[in-house]
Each structure stands twice: as structure tokens, then as C-alpha cells.
Amino acid sequence: MACPPAQGVHGWFPHESVSPWIHSLLGPPTGTSKRLVSFASAAVRKCLAASRHTKFECTIATIPLEWNGTVEERVAAHMDQISSAYSSTHSASTDELPSRANLEDFRPNVHASRTKSVDEKSALPWRKEAIEAADLVYFVGHSQGSIVTTILVASLVDQGILDPARQNVCILALAGISHGPFPGIASIVQYLQTPASAQLFELNKPESALSQCYSTSLATVLERGCRLVAVGSWMDEVVPLHSSLLCGYRHPHIHRVLFVEDAELTGGSFILHLAIWCIRLLNRGLSDHGLIYFLSPLAAGSLVGTVSRGHTILYEDLCTFRTGFEFLVKEVGCTETNKLIEVPLPSTTAVRPDPFGLTWAFARVVSDPAVRSDAAIWAYLIETLDRFDKWNPPAGPLRDAKAQLAHGIRRASFRK
Predict the structure, then answer these.
(1) Could you say which of 248, 274, 284, 397 is the most buried, measured as most Cβ atoms within 10 Å of its Cβ?
(2) For 17-70, where are the alpha helices, taking DSSP H only?
(3) In the sheet that 62-65 helps form, which strands lie side by side, from edge to edge?
(4) H helices, E strands: number in the chain
(5) DSSP string covering 249-297, please?
(6) Within 10 Å of residue 233's Cβ, how many Cβ atoms?
(7) At what angle do helices 144-158 and 71-83 cross, to 10 degrees?
(8) Stretch (H or E) spanning 9
(9) Which parts of the sequence belong to the YMC020W-like alpha/beta hydrolase domain (predicted)?
(10) What is residue 87's predicted lDDT score, i.e. its pLDDT?
(11) pLDDT digits (tens, 9 = 90+) for 170-199
(12) Closest among 195, 168, 299, 313 to 242, alpha carbons compared
């Protein structure tokens, strides 16, 4: 087996020169690319050790890709780091970046958007060679890094550096910001205002240039045969579940996973188990009729008071990285002719979703003949509904949600 490269792409960090008080208060960022590839390589070794591949002498090439900036700046920088002579004197700083390139121009010929500084002594051609020679290539991206990774992989495929027809390629998207962050956090992020932080909210708008570029790249990646594991995190304080779970897209090469801490799962509410049921629907190719979108605000963590760690804690668990690699080597029965399907979502810019949306989404999904005809899915729903009467949420959004779901349950007949 040729060595499988593990490549990590960190999320957006508030730059120290822009927000030094953040760094002094919270310390340096923890979700670095080096940390991501360290966990990814450990997961790969563990999976290979437990499989028939133990007879192979396998070296894992770890490639941490680090740079701060907007999505297009980072894609261009990472392409330089992979495919060109790259100077190690370049630091991961927005200070050295050129002016922003037009999104329409930076893919697939991303090299045009950066001026190269060639230092033959510090060139890293082995990165490109390792990727080209590998049987398996495993990318890990967190938050904004998931968007960067998807566009980067599409560019590598377009330029022939990656060949999904010959290689198994997978992206592990951890709390990916595919449909944007919670619109309500804009008032907090404004204190860290940079071009990169402002750009995150462009993903809330399906018609924006960044969203269109991401959608095109995602189609390239999936239709050419790459896999993508989208991991959402329960109580994520930054990214809603419908965004991290890629609910606006359908393709057999997308596998969705929900990260939940043990304590939450043990005493989990009805909402948690309903979200898990929705993810099972999506992984079986069925529609959730927008139900996860309306559950997302109920699964949000907090950025004030008792601050949640949902957005970061998922990359501290080795099992998360194993899940991605296991899907990479799994047979999924999909050919290159499968097209990416875009599923319109309700407004992703609305701070407060339609109050009746939850009722109607639930009623529609439990009335769907395809859902009713799937014995395993239907049995899990009935098991989940057994928790409903015992669920006694506190006053506030969760109690309102119970009332809305009660209307949906009354409207749906549970006789097949």
C-alpha cells in the first residue's frame, strides 16, 4: 500500500494583530492543522492495525496546511504549499497575502491568484509526489477549513494531482460551515471584523459567489468519486446542524454523523433523538423535509454566559477521525455518473425561523411513503416517539418546540 497522506486544514482564527485580547484571554488556537493531522494519522494507524492491512508496511505522510485569510486566499496558499516550491519563511499570516482574487477566477487555476516566492532549499515537492503516489488520501477540515478543503480538493482533481478513479479520497468536514454560521452571532463576530470573518456570512446566502463556488467544487469532488463525511456537533455555538450536516445537498458519497458527548447522549432529550433519526434518514437517501433545519436552533450552544464547546470539542475525540477513514475504505455502491442534487433550504439568513415550520416539517416527514416503507427507519421513529410524553423541557424555546411537535404528531397518522 502506498503511504496514505493525511492532510489537515484548520478553521478561521481571529488574527492576533486584529484581536490580541482574544489571544490573551483564551490562549492560542487549539484546532491547528498539525493537531488535525496528528489525530487523523493516529486514527488511520488504528484502523489499519485492526484490519487486513496489518501485513503492509505503511508510512503515513502528514501534511498540515496552515494559512490565515479568506477562503480564496487560503486555497491559493495551500495549492502553493502542495504543488509548488514553497518558502518556509512564509508565515501563516494575512499580512503577507496579496489582494483578494475574484472567486470566479481562482478555481481551478488558483496559482494565478498568488505571487510565488521560490526558495529551492525549502521547497517541499514531496507533498505533491506523496499525494500522487498514494492509494488513499484523507483530508480533514474544521469549520471554514472544510470549505477551503473542498475547493482545494476540487482544484487538485481538476489539475490531475488527485485521481479519484484510481485513489480513494475522503474529506472529513468537522463542523463545516457549508450553509453559513448562525446569523445571530454576527453581532458578536463584528468585534473581530476582518475580511475572513465577514466572508463566513456569505455562505448564508445561496446566491453569493462563495456559495456558488463551493457548490460547484462540491459537485466536482463528489461526482468524480471522492467521499465526504460531514460531522455536526450537538450544542455547536457557531454552526447550525443543517449547515454542518450539508442538508442542502444529496449524494450517495455524503455520510453524515452527529458528535454528542456521552453525558448528553445518556440523558439526551427527545430533540436529540429526533435529530439522530433525521440523520439516519439522510444517510439512507431519504428526505427529512427540512426537519433538521428547524431543529438546528434547538441544538445551538452559547457564546455568552456559560460558553459551549460544541464547535471545538469534536476534534478532541479520536473516534471522530476513525469515522471518516472507515467511510473512506467502505463500499458505497456509487458510480461517477451520480449527480449532486441541491435541496433548497428555508432562509439561512433568518435569525428566527418560521415558528410553524417545525410542525409542518415533522408532519410531512412522517407522512412520506418512502419513510413509512423503510421498516428500520419507522421502528426507530416509533421508539423515539415513546420519549415524547416523558420529555419535560423547561420554559422557553424547547417547551415551545414540544407544543409545535405535538401539533405535528396529531396531524400525522401513525398507522401504516
Answers:
(1) 274
(2) 20-26, 33-49
(3) 62-65, 6-9, 136-142, 168-174, 227-233, 254-259
(4) 18, 8
(5) EE-TTEEEEEE--HHHHHT--HHHHHHHHHHHHHHTT---TTHHHHHGG
(6) 28
(7) 50
(8) strand 6-9
(9) 6-77, 129-362
(10) 37
(11) 999 999 999 999 988 877 766 566 788 888
(12) 299
The answer to whether the beta carbons of residues 123 and 139 sit under 8 Å apart is no
Per-residue pLDDT, 120: 33
Query: What are the angstrom distances between the C-alpha of 156 and each of 339, 407, 410?
Result: 20, 49, 51
By residue count, the chain amounts to 416
Stretch (H or E) spanning 131: helix 125-133
User: Given the DSSP bridges, would you call strands 341-342 and 249-250 parallel, antiparallel or unpaired?
Assistant: antiparallel
* Rg of the chain, C-alpha, whole Å: 21
The CA distance from 254 to 226, in Å, is 9
SS3 assignment, position 208: coil
Q: What pLDDT does residue 108 have?
A: 39
pLDDT of residue 351: 58
Q: Where are the chain's structural domains?
A: 6-347, 354-416
For the record, the C-alpha cell of 236 comes out as 455547536
What global pTM score does this model have? Answer: 0.84
H or E, element range at 146 = helix 144-158
- pLDDT, residue 105, reads 40
Residues near 409 by beta carbon (within 8 Å), at least 6 away in sequence? 362, 385, 388
